[in-house]
Design brief:
Length: 70
């Protein structure tokens, strides 16, 4: 699960925005790889998109819970 019951509304919004953005970018890369599937190296683009898509299911830790260390 991406969010916790104890999250405040702003944290939930940031977490969902981050997840939706990663899912969208991951799908975009996967579609670009599928469109260019005639090329032998298109699988690299598709794997990169899959990795980005999968990271959308991980809870971001930076700048949540008053912990904004860069």
């Amino acid at each position: 699960m991406i969010t916790k019951k104890s999250d405040i509304k702003e944290n939930k919004l940031a977490i969902w925005f981050s997840s939706i953005l990663r899912w969208s970018v991951g799908l975009l890369f996967m579609v670009m790889g599928y469109i260019n599937s005639k090329d032998e190296s298109a699988w690299v683009i598709m794997v990169f998109g899959l990795i980005i898509l999968a990271t959308g299911f991980i809870r971001p830790k930076r700048c949540i819970d008053d912990n904004c260390n860069i």
